[in-house]
UniProtKB/TrEMBL annotation:
Originating species: Talaromyces amestolkiae
Ranges of biased composition (kind: Basic and acidic residues): 258-270, 339-348, 355-370
Entries under InterPro entries matching the protein: Brix, BRX1
Biased composition (Acidic residues): 20-51
Keywords attached to this entry: Nucleus, Ribosome biogenesis
Family that this chain belongs to: Belongs to the BRX1 family.
Keyword Aminoacyl-tRNA synthetase in annotation: no
Subcellular location: Nucleus, Nucleolus
Record's protein name: Brix domain-containing protein
Domain Brix: 73-306
Protein backbone atom coordinates (compact mmCIF):
# COMPACT_ATOMS: atom_id res chain seq x y z
CA UNK A 1 0.00 0.00 0.00
CA UNK A 2 2.83 2.39 0.74
CA UNK A 3 4.31 1.77 -2.70
CA UNK A 4 0.94 2.52 -4.31
CA UNK A 5 0.67 5.86 -2.45
CA UNK A 6 4.22 6.80 -3.53
CA UNK A 7 3.47 6.10 -7.20
CA UNK A 8 0.29 8.19 -7.06
CA UNK A 9 2.08 11.15 -5.41
CA UNK A 10 4.82 11.03 -8.04
CA UNK A 11 2.24 11.13 -10.85
CA UNK A 12 0.53 14.18 -9.22
CA UNK A 13 3.82 16.03 -8.95
CA UNK A 14 4.60 15.29 -12.61
CA UNK A 15 1.18 16.65 -13.65
CA UNK A 16 1.65 19.85 -11.62
CA UNK A 17 5.05 20.48 -13.22
CA UNK A 18 3.57 19.92 -16.69
CA UNK A 19 0.76 22.40 -15.99
CA UNK A 20 3.26 25.03 -14.84
CA UNK A 21 5.32 24.58 -18.00
CA UNK A 22 2.20 24.90 -20.18
CA UNK A 23 1.19 28.10 -18.36
CA UNK A 24 4.64 29.56 -18.91
CA UNK A 25 4.42 28.71 -22.58
CA UNK A 26 1.01 30.36 -22.82
CA UNK A 27 2.30 33.50 -21.14
CA UNK A 28 5.17 33.66 -23.56
CA UNK A 29 2.81 33.37 -26.54
CA UNK A 30 0.59 36.07 -25.13
CA UNK A 31 3.55 38.37 -24.74
CA UNK A 32 4.54 37.70 -28.32
CA UNK A 33 1.00 38.41 -29.50
CA UNK A 34 0.99 41.68 -27.54
CA UNK A 35 4.27 42.72 -29.15
CA UNK A 36 3.01 41.89 -32.62
CA UNK A 37 -0.31 43.77 -32.28
CA UNK A 38 0.87 46.74 -30.21
CA UNK A 39 0.66 49.04 -33.23
CA UNK A 40 -2.90 48.05 -33.96
CA UNK A 41 -3.88 48.68 -30.29
CA UNK A 42 -2.41 52.19 -30.47
CA UNK A 43 -4.52 52.87 -33.53
CA UNK A 44 -7.61 51.64 -31.66
CA UNK A 45 -6.80 53.92 -28.72
CA UNK A 46 -6.50 56.91 -31.06
CA UNK A 47 -9.88 56.08 -32.58
CA UNK A 48 -11.41 55.83 -29.09
CA UNK A 49 -9.94 59.24 -28.17
CA UNK A 50 -11.45 60.77 -31.31
CA UNK A 51 -14.84 59.21 -30.53
CA UNK A 52 -14.70 60.54 -26.97
CA UNK A 53 -13.86 64.01 -28.26
CA UNK A 54 -16.81 63.86 -30.64
CA UNK A 55 -19.15 62.75 -27.86
CA UNK A 56 -17.78 65.49 -25.60
CA UNK A 57 -18.48 68.04 -28.31
CA UNK A 58 -22.03 66.76 -28.63
CA UNK A 59 -22.45 66.91 -24.88
CA UNK A 60 -21.12 70.46 -24.93
CA UNK A 61 -23.71 71.42 -27.51
CA UNK A 62 -26.42 69.81 -25.40
CA UNK A 63 -25.16 71.66 -22.33
CA UNK A 64 -25.30 74.92 -24.28
CA UNK A 65 -28.86 74.11 -25.23
CA UNK A 66 -29.72 73.33 -21.61
CA UNK A 67 -28.34 76.61 -20.27
CA UNK A 68 -31.85 78.05 -20.00
CA UNK A 69 -33.07 75.30 -17.69
CA UNK A 70 -33.61 76.07 -14.03
CA UNK A 71 -30.92 74.56 -11.78
CA UNK A 72 -31.76 72.85 -8.52
CA UNK A 73 -32.82 75.45 -5.95
CA UNK A 74 -34.14 75.19 -2.41
CA UNK A 75 -35.74 78.15 -0.65
CA UNK A 76 -35.56 78.65 3.11
CA UNK A 77 -38.71 80.43 4.37
CA UNK A 78 -38.99 81.85 7.89
CA UNK A 79 -40.24 84.88 9.80
CA UNK A 80 -39.07 86.98 12.73
CA UNK A 81 -40.71 87.40 16.10
CA UNK A 82 -43.63 89.81 16.28
CA UNK A 83 -45.45 88.82 13.07
CA UNK A 84 -49.24 88.84 12.95
CA UNK A 85 -51.57 86.05 11.92
CA UNK A 86 -51.85 87.52 8.40
CA UNK A 87 -48.08 87.32 7.97
CA UNK A 88 -48.05 83.71 9.16
CA UNK A 89 -50.83 82.79 6.74
CA UNK A 90 -48.92 84.45 3.91
CA UNK A 91 -45.88 82.31 4.61
CA UNK A 92 -47.96 79.13 4.86
CA UNK A 93 -49.71 79.94 1.56
CA UNK A 94 -46.39 80.49 -0.21
CA UNK A 95 -44.85 77.32 1.23
CA UNK A 96 -47.88 75.32 0.04
CA UNK A 97 -47.71 77.01 -3.36
CA UNK A 98 -44.00 76.26 -3.93
CA UNK A 99 -42.88 72.62 -3.41
CA UNK A 100 -39.13 73.43 -3.38
CA UNK A 101 -39.27 75.37 -0.09
CA UNK A 102 -38.28 74.50 3.46
CA UNK A 103 -40.24 76.22 6.24
CA UNK A 104 -38.36 77.02 9.45
CA UNK A 105 -39.48 78.30 12.85
CA UNK A 106 -39.49 81.95 13.88
CA UNK A 107 -36.17 83.69 14.33
CA UNK A 108 -35.60 85.81 17.42
CA UNK A 109 -33.65 88.76 16.06
CA UNK A 110 -33.45 90.69 19.35
CA UNK A 111 -31.67 88.05 21.44
CA UNK A 112 -29.26 86.95 18.72
CA UNK A 113 -28.05 90.50 18.14
CA UNK A 114 -27.35 90.12 14.43
CA UNK A 115 -29.30 87.65 12.32
CA UNK A 116 -27.14 87.81 9.18
CA UNK A 117 -24.69 85.08 10.21
CA UNK A 118 -27.49 83.04 11.79
CA UNK A 119 -29.54 83.02 8.59
CA UNK A 120 -26.50 82.02 6.53
CA UNK A 121 -25.75 79.15 8.87
CA UNK A 122 -29.41 78.00 8.76
CA UNK A 123 -29.33 78.02 4.96
CA UNK A 124 -26.15 75.96 4.96
CA UNK A 125 -27.60 73.53 7.52
CA UNK A 126 -30.73 72.85 5.43
CA UNK A 127 -28.89 72.91 2.04
CA UNK A 128 -30.79 76.00 0.84
CA UNK A 129 -29.35 78.47 -1.67
CA UNK A 130 -32.12 81.12 -1.35
CA UNK A 131 -33.39 82.76 1.86
CA UNK A 132 -36.94 84.19 2.03
CA UNK A 133 -37.07 86.09 5.35
CA UNK A 134 -40.08 88.11 6.53
CA UNK A 135 -39.22 90.69 9.19
CA UNK A 136 -41.95 92.44 11.19
CA UNK A 137 -41.38 95.76 12.95
CA UNK A 138 -43.42 98.18 15.07
CA UNK A 139 -45.54 95.36 16.55
CA UNK A 140 -46.52 93.97 13.17
CA UNK A 141 -47.40 97.29 11.56
CA UNK A 142 -44.55 97.13 9.03
CA UNK A 143 -43.47 94.02 7.12
CA UNK A 144 -40.18 93.71 5.21
CA UNK A 145 -38.99 90.96 2.91
CA UNK A 146 -35.31 89.96 2.64
CA UNK A 147 -34.25 87.89 -0.39
CA UNK A 148 -30.70 86.62 -0.26
CA UNK A 149 -28.38 84.18 -2.01
CA UNK A 150 -26.10 82.78 0.69
CA UNK A 151 -23.21 82.75 1.25
CA UNK A 152 -21.96 85.37 -1.24
CA UNK A 153 -25.10 87.40 -1.94
CA UNK A 154 -26.65 89.60 -3.22
CA UNK A 155 -29.45 90.65 -0.84
CA UNK A 156 -32.58 92.63 -1.72
CA UNK A 157 -34.80 94.30 0.86
CA UNK A 158 -38.48 94.91 0.02
CA UNK A 159 -41.37 96.57 1.79
CA UNK A 160 -44.51 94.39 1.71
CA UNK A 161 -47.85 96.21 1.43
CA UNK A 162 -51.43 95.49 0.27
CA UNK A 163 -51.27 91.96 1.65
CA UNK A 164 -54.18 89.56 1.07
CA UNK A 165 -54.03 85.85 1.90
CA UNK A 166 -56.05 83.06 0.33
CA UNK A 167 -58.42 82.96 3.30
CA UNK A 168 -59.11 86.69 3.09
CA UNK A 169 -59.90 86.50 -0.60
CA UNK A 170 -62.51 83.80 0.05
CA UNK A 171 -61.07 81.43 -2.57
CA UNK A 172 -59.79 78.72 -0.27
CA UNK A 173 -62.19 76.10 -1.71
CA UNK A 174 -62.84 77.75 -5.07
CA UNK A 175 -59.53 76.69 -6.63
CA UNK A 176 -58.61 73.17 -7.71
CA UNK A 177 -54.83 73.50 -7.70
CA UNK A 178 -52.92 70.41 -6.69
CA UNK A 179 -50.38 70.65 -3.92
CA UNK A 180 -46.91 70.12 -5.32
CA UNK A 181 -47.71 71.29 -8.84
CA UNK A 182 -45.57 73.68 -10.87
CA UNK A 183 -46.68 77.10 -12.00
CA UNK A 184 -45.85 79.30 -14.97
CA UNK A 185 -44.08 82.47 -13.82
CA UNK A 186 -44.79 85.44 -16.07
CA UNK A 187 -42.83 88.72 -15.97
CA UNK A 188 -44.02 91.78 -17.81
CA UNK A 189 -41.89 93.84 -20.20
CA UNK A 190 -40.64 96.19 -17.49
CA UNK A 191 -38.30 93.43 -16.27
CA UNK A 192 -36.90 92.65 -19.71
CA UNK A 193 -33.58 94.42 -20.31
CA UNK A 194 -34.01 94.11 -24.09
CA UNK A 195 -37.57 95.34 -23.97
CA UNK A 196 -38.58 98.99 -23.56
CA UNK A 197 -36.08 101.80 -23.86
CA UNK A 198 -36.52 102.91 -20.26
CA UNK A 199 -35.14 99.64 -18.93
CA UNK A 200 -32.09 99.68 -21.22
CA UNK A 201 -30.98 103.05 -19.88
CA UNK A 202 -28.21 103.33 -17.32
CA UNK A 203 -29.32 103.10 -13.72
CA UNK A 204 -32.08 100.52 -14.32
CA UNK A 205 -29.92 97.38 -14.27
CA UNK A 206 -31.33 96.49 -10.87
CA UNK A 207 -34.54 95.30 -12.54
CA UNK A 208 -32.70 92.35 -14.10
CA UNK A 209 -31.26 91.42 -10.71
CA UNK A 210 -34.68 91.61 -9.04
CA UNK A 211 -36.10 89.45 -11.84
CA UNK A 212 -33.50 86.74 -11.30
CA UNK A 213 -34.01 86.74 -7.53
CA UNK A 214 -37.79 86.42 -7.87
CA UNK A 215 -37.28 83.76 -10.53
CA UNK A 216 -35.23 81.71 -8.08
CA UNK A 217 -38.08 81.86 -5.57
CA UNK A 218 -41.17 81.29 -7.71
CA UNK A 219 -39.78 79.08 -10.52
CA UNK A 220 -39.87 75.42 -9.49
CA UNK A 221 -37.01 73.32 -10.95
CA UNK A 222 -37.99 70.35 -13.09
CA UNK A 223 -35.95 67.81 -11.12
CA UNK A 224 -34.64 67.30 -7.63
CA UNK A 225 -37.81 68.36 -5.73
CA UNK A 226 -39.45 65.89 -3.37
CA UNK A 227 -43.22 65.73 -3.57
CA UNK A 228 -43.48 67.63 -6.87
CA UNK A 229 -46.29 66.63 -9.23
CA UNK A 230 -45.94 66.78 -13.04
CA UNK A 231 -48.82 69.25 -13.42
CA UNK A 232 -48.96 72.91 -14.42
CA UNK A 233 -52.24 74.32 -13.13
CA UNK A 234 -51.42 77.88 -12.00
CA UNK A 235 -49.84 81.11 -13.24
CA UNK A 236 -47.80 83.48 -11.08
CA UNK A 237 -47.81 86.99 -12.51
CA UNK A 238 -45.10 89.52 -11.62
CA UNK A 239 -45.88 93.04 -12.82
CA UNK A 240 -43.83 96.21 -12.42
CA UNK A 241 -46.04 99.32 -12.15
CA UNK A 242 -45.24 102.72 -10.58
CA UNK A 243 -41.89 101.54 -9.24
CA UNK A 244 -43.52 98.65 -7.35
CA UNK A 245 -43.82 94.93 -7.99
CA UNK A 246 -47.34 93.48 -7.98
CA UNK A 247 -47.60 89.70 -7.52
CA UNK A 248 -50.78 87.81 -8.38
CA UNK A 249 -51.54 84.07 -8.48
CA UNK A 250 -54.14 82.62 -10.88
CA UNK A 251 -55.53 79.16 -11.40
CA UNK A 252 -55.82 77.69 -14.90
CA UNK A 253 -59.41 76.45 -14.98
CA UNK A 254 -60.76 74.33 -17.80
CA UNK A 255 -64.47 73.96 -18.49
CA UNK A 256 -66.53 72.21 -21.14
CA UNK A 257 -67.55 74.12 -24.22
CA UNK A 258 -71.33 73.87 -23.56
CA UNK A 259 -71.21 74.94 -19.93
CA UNK A 260 -71.59 78.67 -20.64
CA UNK A 261 -74.80 80.66 -20.83
CA UNK A 262 -76.71 81.21 -24.04
CA UNK A 263 -75.62 84.84 -24.29
CA UNK A 264 -71.96 83.85 -24.02
CA UNK A 265 -72.44 81.13 -26.63
CA UNK A 266 -74.08 83.64 -29.00
CA UNK A 267 -71.16 86.03 -28.59
CA UNK A 268 -68.69 83.24 -29.28
CA UNK A 269 -70.63 82.27 -32.43
CA UNK A 270 -70.60 85.86 -33.70
CA UNK A 271 -66.89 86.17 -33.04
CA UNK A 272 -66.10 82.86 -34.80
CA UNK A 273 -68.54 83.22 -37.72
CA UNK A 274 -65.85 83.98 -40.29
CA UNK A 275 -63.29 81.59 -38.84
CA UNK A 276 -62.98 77.93 -39.70
CA UNK A 277 -64.95 75.68 -37.40
CA UNK A 278 -63.05 72.71 -36.07
CA UNK A 279 -63.01 70.47 -33.06
CA UNK A 280 -63.76 72.64 -30.05
CA UNK A 281 -61.65 71.85 -26.98
CA UNK A 282 -62.15 72.83 -23.38
CA UNK A 283 -62.47 76.50 -22.57
CA UNK A 284 -59.61 77.89 -20.48
CA UNK A 285 -60.05 80.74 -18.01
CA UNK A 286 -58.00 82.29 -15.20
CA UNK A 287 -59.31 82.61 -11.64
CA UNK A 288 -57.33 84.51 -9.00
CA UNK A 289 -56.82 82.36 -5.92
CA UNK A 290 -54.19 84.35 -4.01
CA UNK A 291 -52.14 85.24 -2.17
CA UNK A 292 -51.52 88.75 -3.46
CA UNK A 293 -49.09 91.40 -2.24
CA UNK A 294 -47.05 94.37 -3.44
CA UNK A 295 -43.27 94.70 -3.06
CA UNK A 296 -41.39 97.99 -3.03
CA UNK A 297 -37.60 97.64 -3.46
CA UNK A 298 -35.65 99.57 -0.83
CA UNK A 299 -31.99 98.62 -1.06
CA UNK A 300 -29.72 96.00 -2.66
CA UNK A 301 -26.62 94.79 -0.81
CA UNK A 302 -23.64 93.11 -2.43
CA UNK A 303 -23.20 90.38 0.21
CA UNK A 304 -25.54 88.03 2.00
CA UNK A 305 -27.33 90.19 4.61
CA UNK A 306 -24.48 92.68 4.55
CA UNK A 307 -21.88 94.37 2.42
CA UNK A 308 -21.78 97.61 0.44
CA UNK A 309 -24.94 99.13 -1.01
CA UNK A 310 -25.12 98.74 -4.79
CA UNK A 311 -28.63 100.22 -5.24
CA UNK A 312 -30.90 102.44 -3.15
CA UNK A 313 -34.42 103.53 -4.00
CA UNK A 314 -34.50 107.30 -3.57
CA UNK A 315 -38.27 107.49 -4.05
CA UNK A 316 -39.06 105.13 -1.17
CA UNK A 317 -40.67 106.68 1.91
CA UNK A 318 -40.65 104.59 5.08
CA UNK A 319 -43.92 103.98 6.98
CA UNK A 320 -42.37 105.64 10.05
CA UNK A 321 -41.96 108.86 8.09
CA UNK A 322 -45.55 108.64 6.86
CA UNK A 323 -46.88 108.17 10.38
CA UNK A 324 -44.69 111.02 11.63
CA UNK A 325 -46.04 113.34 8.94
CA UNK A 326 -49.61 112.41 9.91
CA UNK A 327 -48.93 113.18 13.57
CA UNK A 328 -47.29 116.51 12.72
CA UNK A 329 -50.25 117.44 10.53
CA UNK A 330 -52.68 116.70 13.35
CA UNK A 331 -50.54 118.66 15.83
CA UNK A 332 -50.35 121.64 13.48
CA UNK A 333 -54.13 121.69 13.09
CA UNK A 334 -54.58 121.59 16.88
CA UNK A 335 -52.01 124.39 17.39
CA UNK A 336 -53.71 126.52 14.76
CA UNK A 337 -57.10 126.03 16.45
CA UNK A 338 -55.65 127.00 19.84
CA UNK A 339 -54.06 130.11 18.35
CA UNK A 340 -57.41 131.20 16.91
CA UNK A 341 -59.08 130.72 20.29
CA UNK A 342 -56.36 132.71 22.08
CA UNK A 343 -56.67 135.60 19.60
CA UNK A 344 -60.43 135.60 20.07
CA UNK A 345 -60.06 135.83 23.87
CA UNK A 346 -57.56 138.67 23.59
CA UNK A 347 -59.88 140.59 21.27
CA UNK A 348 -62.85 140.17 23.62
CA UNK A 349 -60.83 141.32 26.64
CA UNK A 350 -59.61 144.40 24.75
CA UNK A 351 -63.21 145.37 23.98
CA UNK A 352 -64.30 144.83 27.57
CA UNK A 353 -66.42 141.83 26.68
CA UNK A 354 -64.40 139.34 28.64
CA UNK A 355 -65.32 137.81 31.96
CA UNK A 356 -62.95 140.09 33.86
CA UNK A 357 -64.39 143.32 32.39
CA UNK A 358 -68.05 142.45 33.08
CA UNK A 359 -69.90 143.86 36.07
CA UNK A 360 -71.32 141.28 38.42
CA UNK A 361 -75.11 141.13 38.64
CA UNK A 362 -77.09 139.97 41.61
CA UNK A 363 -77.93 136.77 39.74
CA UNK A 364 -74.34 136.04 38.70
CA UNK A 365 -73.16 132.63 39.75
CA UNK A 366 -70.12 134.16 41.37
CA UNK A 367 -72.37 136.28 43.54
CA UNK A 368 -74.96 133.63 44.32
CA UNK A 369 -72.49 130.87 45.21
CA UNK A 370 -69.79 133.10 46.68
Amino acid sequence: MASVYKSISKKKQERLVADEISEDEDMDMNDLMDEEFSDSDDDDEEEEIEENAATNGANGQQSNKNEGFMPKTRVLMLTSRGVTHRHRYLLSDLSALLPHTHKENKLDTKKSGGYNMLLNSLAELHSCNVVFFLEARKRGQDLYLWLSRPPNGPTIKFSVTNLHTMGEMGTGFAGNCLKGGRGIVMFDKSFDEKGPEAVSQSGTEYRGLIREMLRKVFCVPKRGVRGMKPFIDRIIGVFGVDGKIWIRVYEIRESEAGSKNKDDQAEVKKATKGAKTGSTGPEVSLVEIGPRFVLTPIVILEGSFGGPVIYENKEYVSPNQVRRDIRLEKASRYAQRRDVQADHEVKKSSLGLGKEGRKRDALDTREVFA
